[in-house]
Design a protein that fits this description.
Radius of gyration: 61 Å
Largest sheet: none
Number of helices: 1
Order of helices and strands: H
Distance between the termini: 206 Å
Amino acid sequence: MNQNPENNNEHNVKSENRFLQETILSLREKLEALQYEKDQCIADAVSTASDEIKQTQATIAALRQELEKMRYENEQNVVAAVSCAKDEIKQLKETITSLRQELEQNNARHEEALQKSTRLARDEQHQLQETISILRNKLENSKK
């Protein structure tokens, strides 16, 4: 078993070379596996973030639509309230006008009744004075 030291050395170098190539291959495979795993994690993170962004955008759109609906409803409520208030003001003005006319008519009737009463009292006073005058004249004539 006499091997040549050069052969033995060459064998050791080949063996070491093969071992290094196998180690390189193994490390390369591990590195590729790690890179694939890293790429997969990044892809998953990007996908999750993209889904969250889409959900957030959908939520924003729904909230914006709800806000617009609420604004529209509020505007309609304001318009209805203003219209109702205008109708009520119109009715109140009509009531005021009607009550004013009725008050003026009552005042006119009262004034007329007061004038009639004053006239009747004056006429009665005038008649009584005439009666007094007639009776005085009769009394004076009867004393003569």
